[in-house]
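Q: How would the structure tokens look for this protein?
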Amino acid sequence: YERALRFAAGRPPAERAALLEAYAWETHLTDRLDASIAARREAVELWRLEGKPERQGENLARLSHTLIRAGRNAEAEEASRASLDLLEPLPEGPERALAYRFQSYLRMLDRDLDDAVAWGERAIEAAERFGDVDSLVHAYNSVGSSYLVGGQVERGRELLERAVRRATEAGMDHHVADAFDNLGSAMGEVMRLDLAEEA
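A: Here is the predicted structure in token form.
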């Protein structure tokens, strides 16, 4: 993707934006976070110029995730809120499930547990309506983690195990790993060390 982008300067904005999205995801996965953030921001701007607010909102939501990984949570919050501001006035689509899921994830990380559950439940409802298994599993993860660290251990555990099952069925290994990771760390946080070790 990096090589393709070097030769894509004259391509239509939508084509270049799609390349930037793919590049941003690959650099996110390989921990080249500054490159991922820059690519995502450029994609956001290209979709703005194309008059595609749903794609702009989707990329802002995904940008928030990379910013979290980079430890830039205040910027992640700004990107997430901007995504919601763009998407909520539009007809509902899978992009909104994505925006809700990352807002739930931010709230869970900040231990704003009631808000994390509320945003996560909105993400789950939208993801189910649009068949978005990726957002569904990620939202199960955030909501389950929120319940678990909030003291509702069995309810949280059930949702995290549901995340593992659905992600396994869909072949989403990274979501399986995330759910086990959250299950282990949340069980450790509530001092259920036997279950933390198992996860």
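The longest helix spans residues 113-130.

Residues 53 and 86 are 6 Å apart (CA to CA).

Upvote if useful.
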